[in-house]
Design a protein that fits this description.
Length: 232
């Protein structure tokens, strides 16, 4: 069986629709809780797929959260070896940092459901399936790493997705999160929601109900194509 290792930063930001999709493809899934694990002991190369999930901290907060440095070092080894790697939200920012780019606060909170603007490269990639609003939940951004290709943008965030060769895909947005599980996000991120103008739980809930079914369909198609291209 194929092996997927998922680095998780908070319990409710999990694999989402990726979980059943990977199970259908005969992957065994192992979660590692990044903040409390000894990441220096993890084998960065053996898993067939590494997924680095989201979380409410910044890559530049490594003085407060020392595990970030170990996570970046693991990603550097993984990416240098050309092993399949998917980063989502914080995971995409960690990938950007591991590839030598700057990660920083954007000055804008982008929280809620909104469509993507695909680049020409994005329109010919697996992201073309995401013809629906996706969930955005971040206040940080990154410069595009050297040697990578930008795939998507939004008005508030130019670098929403990039690919590094065929093996690495970084998504600033959430194409894996949808439906009832997002109720846990509304609790876990209650302070951030309350502190962000024009963002509210009722609106997030309404949009989640409105867009989730299509996101599930489009997200599965997007990830299935990417997995197929990598033999996963």
């Amino acid at each position: 069986m194929l092996q997927t290792l998922a680095l998780r930063h908070v319990p409710f930001e999990d694999l989402g629709l990726l979980g059943p999709l990977l199970a259908e493809r005969k992957h065994t899934i192992r979660y590692v809780e990044a903040p409390i694990a000894d990441l220096s002991t993890l084998d960065a190369l053996t898993p067939d797929l590494l997924v680095v999930l989201g979380g409410p901290i910044g890559v530049y907060e490594n003085d407060r959260y020392p595990f970030i440095d170990a996570e970046i070092a693991l990603l550097q080894r993984r990416l240098a070896a050309g092993r399949p790697t998917l980063g989502i939200c914080l995971g995409s920012q960690l990938m950007a940092k591991a590839l030598g780019a700057r990660v920083y606060a954007s000055g804008v909170k982008e929280i809620g459901w909104a469509p993507l603007e695909l680049t020409s490269e994005g329109a010919s990639s697996c992201l073309r399936h995401l013809a629906t609003p996706v969930l955005h939940w971040h206040g940080d951004t990154f410069d595009l790493p050297a040697g990578t290709v930008r795939l998507a943008s939004t008005p508030a965030c130019r670098n929403q997705a990039f690919t590094a060769g065929r093996h690495a895909l970084a998504l600033q947005f959430h194409a894996e999160a949808y439906g009832q599980p997002l109720e846990a996000w509304f609790v876990g991120h209650a302070c951030e929601i309350a502190g962000t103008p024009a963002v509210s739980v009722p609106q997030l809930r309404s949009d989640t109900q409105r867009f989730s079914a299509e996101l599930e369909r489009c997200g599965r198609a997007c990830f299935e194509e990417w997995f197929l291209g990598l033999g996963l």
